Amino acid sequence: LGPSMMNAFELITLSQGLNLSALFET
Amino acid sequence: MGCFNSKFTKHSPGYEDPVKLAAETAFSVSEVEALYELFKKISSSVIDDGLINKEEFQLALFKNSKKENLFADRVFDLFDVKRKGVIDFGDFVRSLSVFHPNAPQEDKIDFAFKLYDLQCTGYIEREEVKQMLIALLCESEMKLADEVIETILDKTFQEADVDQDGRIDRDEWQKFVSHNPSLMKIMTLPYLKDITTTFPSFVFNSEVDDIAT
């Protein structure tokens, strides 16, 4: 799915800052 | 009473009883104790004071304490429940509980709403969403023309902003995510189900007699 086909929130959820699973790889 | 008994372990200032935290959250007592092992690691990575500051939070997320990220800032602010500029153990467990696979969907939807309501007005405004999109584009390799961003915003608000007042309220948000369930994926961390196997050392520091509870 290209970025322009996504809604704004779908795009925002791609942010690395929302990927909290990285906390567990400490 | 063996050599490993740790009934008198010294805890950090924000430490709370795991039994109490388990009663208030989606975690078992063992899971809360395993989370304490993770909390100790993160909270001692820059300053060993038993509290997670923003730099330590960024370091844990990005392996780089200097990386600026709007979303990481926002998540940190939401975890900092007592608005002290730091996350204590109680804040950490209560906030992460929302991300537990067993946490109520309502709590996840509410947390995501707060995440996107940057100005804390009780609404997700178009300008806020635009600001987040631009921040995302800046941090990633993605390049989108301004007209494309406006088109994405138009489409999103046509669908989400039912009363067309230029902002998304809680009811509209709830309906929107029910039609777009993929948006809630970030609100569940499968890791939290395996936290006791990821941090098995909690067993040696446990202060609860029956750790299976």
UniProtKB/TrEMBL annotation, chain B:
Organism encoding this protein: Picea sitchensis (Sitka spruce)
Record family assignment: Belongs to the calcineurin regulatory subunit family.
Protein's recorded name: EF-hand domain-containing protein
Ranges where the EF-hand domain occurs: 67-102, 104-139, 148-183
Lineage, uppermost ranks: Eukaryota, Viridiplantae, Streptophyta, Embryophyta, Tracheophyta
A Pfam family matched in the record: EF-hand_7
GO biological process: calcium-mediated signaling
SMART domains listed in its UniProt record: EFh
Keyword terms, alphabetized: Calcium, Repeat
Coiled coil, from the record: none
SUPFAM superfamilies registered for this protein in UniProt: EF-hand
